[in-house]
Request: fold
Amino acid sequence: MNLFNLFINGALDHLKEETDSRTVSTDLLARLQEEHQALSSGYADAEPINYQTLERRLAYAMFYAPKHAYVWREYGRQEWNDRQVLRLNSFGTGPGSEIIGLAEHLRPGGLRRVEAVCLEREDSWRNLAHRVFQRYQEETGVEMNVLWVTDSSYFRRNQHLVGSFVLSELARESLLSQFRAEMVKRIGPARGTFIDGTAVNVVTGKCLLSSMAGQNWYDHFGARGWLCKDDINTAWSACNVKVCGHVLPAEPNICAFKYNFR
Ligand SMILES: C[S@@+](CC[C@H](N)C(=O)[O-])C[C@H]1O[C@@H](n2cnc3c(N)ncnc32)[C@H](O)[C@@H]1O
Reply:
């Protein structure tokens, strides 16, 4: 499955739901491209990124989300064994990149159902994510059983927690230690996997996420390296509608942070 097509179509379904039209007019196209640029430069800022406008969420879902899903698929290939049911807690779900990426890795091995609890502070992601999950279920036959929650007390205990490009958000807001303690209380003992940039700009300067994350964290580069640039570029070139995005010049400069919440 081309994951750019999946997320772009999910985003267009959501556009229809919000505006009654699935058409990307010239005016909307310009605004989406502007938002794509703003997101691209925003990741270097020390301020948290907000996803409050529809245009920003659409621009994110049409490029960054599928890109992240391919990164998770590659990570899954190196680390996650086949299973019929994928059970996850997801923190900072956005449009659901990590869930889709891991499901895509597990689908050829017989994945039948995803059971995920999603915690996302920006509630307006909910309907867009739902559209993506709905399309994924229709196109693959994998049952998407997703519970969208407003508080970590709804996370399932002992269930793997995943987060994608959210540790950097927590770091920008000096919330990493608090987050770790909260997760130990809510889901521990459980494992956590987070993919993010290696460093993040915070108000006091540039910080390595691994050094900010505390003793039990470690960064892990997959045995073969990420090796997802070619998959991403091939899918991007082949996708039907290109609204915003670009070819990747190099492998993403990211790492996986793994943690035992205990
Ligand atoms: C960069 S986006 C990542 C979205 C998706 N996981 C992905 O990889 O494409 C980070 C998400 O984390 C959410 N987020 C940031 N801080 C959060 C918090 N303290 N609690 C819940 N969600 C948070 C943001 O609203 C945003 O949707």
User: Anything to note?
Assistant: Residues 51, 64-65, 68, 92-94, 97-98, 119-122, 125, 164-166, 169 surround S-adenosylmethionine (CB under 6 Å).
